[in-house]
Amino acid sequence: MLMPGLSSARVSLHIRLFVALAATGGLLVHLWDQIAPFVDARPGVLMPMIASELLIGGLIGLMARLYILALMFIGSAIAMLIGFNGIGGSAIEENEPQTALASIISFSALMLLFVFNFHHEVIRALVASYKVAPVNMLFNPQAALVDVTDTLAESFMVVLRLGSPFIAYAILVNLTIGFVNKLTPQIPVYFISLPFVVAGGLVLIYFGLGTMLSLFADGFVDITIGR
After folding, report:
1. What's the burial of 138, exposed, middle or buried (CB within 10 Å: 0-12/13-18/19+)?
2. What residues contact 6, with CB distance under 8 A and at least 6 apart?
3. Cα 120 vs. chain centroid, distance in angstroms?
4. Alpha carbon 160 to its chain's center
5. What is the per-residue pLDDT across 82-117, written as a single tens digit (0 to 9) for each?
6. pTM passes above 0.85
7. What is the crossing angle of helices 43-81 and 189-218, to 10°?
8. Long-range contacts of range 86-92, CB-CB < 8 Å, 24 or more positions apart?
């Protein structure tokens, strides 16, 4: 329900539910020995355990999703920095409109994650969670909050570094345009220079997008699953 890609607004709720049930049934066969000894039919014991497992699974999916949301943020920021933030179109992950450039970046990142089988890493982390936090250990909100905070900090530091060339480009270009506009106030320099600013930003995207997505994929497991 929260994992990147499957939690997209483009995926039907029924498909998400069926995938969750299929994954649950498939993993239950292999994890039965780690789950069955702790199962207690008493509602006062069973219900907190179910709620705890739901929260742990949600935390794993949420940390992976936060990493994707950080990329979506920097994608929208890049579109704004190079002046290519026109009318918003259809987003890949969310229902809110998203610029064309941000949609391309988000879609490319999601495709890479599935091509490199990183969705299997999320399932592997789910299996490993039964060793790190057995069923009889209830959800720890303090540890979960620390994990979410660390994931947010590291994710946004990664995407900030990935977007730093575009930030530097925007600062230099707008500073230059500002100086030229001061020298020739009678000429609408901003409107004249806008196509060149967009063209320069697209050239930068052309040469840097591959490396950007590669570095983004390299940090996925370490930041979201490694902890």
Report:
1. middle
2. 15, 16, 19, 119
3. 16
4. 13
5. 888 776 667 677 777 778 888 888 888 888 888 888
6. no
7. 140
8. 91/9, 92/8, 92/10
